[in-house]
């Protein structure tokens, strides 16, 4: 009876290294089951994710486990089963999650899980995350809230000067009549 062993070839090592390099720059990872998608649908998803500074990569689970373990990310055994594609967000993960959940509604793609800011989330939590405003939207809301008092102050000052000008004009009109 011979023992089973895997040969570690240079090709396998280079693929794991390639994945590790791809994963190390990511700020968020969303794992999907892409079964049933056509080439056109995958291309469309990839193009939309590229606009959000993200990449969709179909991965070999064994290589991905090794690459993630080298980056000290574990507990992915249950997630990395079956056909898996991972969306890697290089900036904010919220827009990436939104794009993927838009496709969940209209295609057979299924979200398995996500790693966002180093924390593992299930599919329901990733869906809830996708519904939250993105970082840029939150910054815009904050800037709007911070700008409102100053804007109201300008409107108040403008109202005082307008009232003064109207009063002076009314006085001038009365003097010209009388």
UniProtKB/TrEMBL annotation:
Keywords: Ribonucleoprotein, Ribosomal protein, RNA-binding, rRNA-binding. InterPro entries: Ribosomal_uL10 (IPR001790), Ribosomal_uL10-like_sf (IPR043141), Ribosomal_uL10_bac (IPR022973), Ribosomal_uL10_bac_type (IPR047865), Ribosomal_uL10_CS_bac (IPR002363). CDD domains: Ribosomal_L10 (cd05797). One of its GO terms (cellular component) is ribosome. Signal peptide: none annotated. Belongs to the universal ribosomal protein uL10 family. PANTHER family: 39S RIBOSOMAL PROTEIN L10, MITOCHONDRIAL (PTHR11560). Part of the ribosomal stalk of the 50S ribosomal subunit. The N-terminus interacts with L11 and the large rRNA to form the base of the stalk. The C-terminus forms an elongated spine to which L12 dimers bind in a sequential fashion forming a multimeric L10(L12)X complex. Forms part of the ribosomal stalk, playing a central role in the interaction of the ribosome with GTP-bound translation factors. This is Large ribosomal subunit protein uL10. It comes from Rarispira pelagica. The gene is rplJ.
């Amino acid at each position: 009876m011979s023992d089973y062993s895997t040969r570690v070839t240079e090709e396998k090592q280079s693929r794991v290294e390639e994945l590790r390099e791809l994963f190390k720059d990511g700020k968020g990872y969303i794992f999907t089951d892409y079964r049933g998608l056509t080439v056109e649908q995958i291309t469309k998803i990839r193009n939309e994710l590229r606009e959000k500074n993200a990449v969709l990569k179909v991965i070999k689970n064994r290589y991905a486990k090794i690459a993630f373990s080298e980056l000290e990310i574990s507990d992915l055994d249950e997630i990395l089963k079956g056909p898996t594609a991972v969306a890697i967000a290089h900036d904010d993960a919220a827009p990436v999650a939104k794009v993927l959940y838009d496709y969940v509604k209209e295609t057979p793609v299924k979200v398995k899980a996500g790693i966002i800011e180093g924390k593992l989330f299930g599919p329901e939590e990733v869906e809830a995350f996708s519904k939250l405003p993105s970082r840029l939207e939150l910054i815009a809301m904050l800037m709007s809230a911070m700008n409102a008092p100053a804007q109201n102050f300008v409107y108040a000052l403008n109202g005082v000067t307008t009232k003064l000008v109207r009063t002076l004009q009314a006085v001038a009109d009365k003097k010209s009549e009388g």
